[in-house]
Amino acid sequence: MTADGALARLIRSSADRQPAAGAEVCDLCAEPLAGDHPHLYDTGQAEVRCACRACSVLFADTRQGTGAGDGQFRLIPTRRVRLPKVDTAALGVPVGLVFFVPRADGSVTAEGPSPAGAMRWEVEAAAWQRAVAGCPPLAGMTPDVEALLVNTVHGLDHHWIVPVDDCFRMLAVVRREWRGLSGGGRMWPAVERFFEELTERA
């Protein structure tokens, strides 16, 4: 049976399940989820999807082109690596809270919060290559699903390789706490707590 066939069977077998009100479920097959569960990146919608263990296995080999879904869904890894300082000013991004995502097509995007919502920039290829030369671990990032996450606001010095779902969590913290034009008194302490709670993991 192909991976796509297995996925279709999982979805059919779960169609009649009625999860408890408020329970978190797999976005693919509606299986109830544990608190700690895998995530998939939907490349078509640029969104993170929750997945059960069974569905996540179907997408484990998408880097080799053998996973289910024709590459639309990418399994998000879990590793985090704290880095030495990366000169992100040279990447042409004028903010201190930002994340950079290398894409499968070779481009690199940067995204950060603003009063109008998330802002996105294209990073010049030559500038990114200089950053990689200065910080070799960046070369090993998995396209679309890992990011360089940076916070240099208020004199902080956080530089991490993280799964992209961490970046979405950071943006959710910002959206929840942002007040006024500058973020207000609650947002920046909440962001600092977010970074303090990041831990390295393989």
Q: Would you kindly provide a written description of the structure presented here, covering whatever features stand out?
A:
The structure is a single chain. With 202 residues, this protein is an alpha+beta fold. It contains 5 helices and 9 strands, in the order H-E-E-H-E-E-E-E-E-H-E-E-H-H. The strands form 2 sheets. It has a 6-stranded antiparallel sheet. Helix 4 (164-177) packs antiparallel against helix 5. The two termini are 32 Å apart. The model is unreliable at 1-17 (pLDDT under 50). It comes from Streptomyces hyaluromycini. It holds the Pfam family DUF5947. This is DUF5947 family protein.
Biggest sheet record: 6 strands, antiparallel
The backbone outline, from C-alpha atoms, is globular
How far is it from the N-terminal to the C-terminal residue, by CA? 32 Å
Q: Determine the strand fraction and express it as a percent band.
A: 15-25%
Oligomeric nature of the chains: single chain
Mean pLDDT: 85
What is the number of beta strands? 9
The low-confidence runs, each spanning 5 or more residues with pLDDT under 50, are: 1-17
Structural class: alpha+beta
Compute the CA-based radius of gyration. 18 Å
Protein name: DUF5947 family protein
Pfam families: DUF5947 (PF19372)
InterPro entries: DUF5947
Organism: Streptomyces hyaluromycini
Supply the key terms.
single chain; 202 residues; alpha+beta; 6-stranded antiparallel β-sheet; 5 helices; 20% strand; globular; disordered N terminus; DUF5947; DUF5947 family protein
Question: What is the structure about, briefly put?
Answer:
This is DUF5947 family protein. By secondary structure, the chain is of the alpha+beta class.
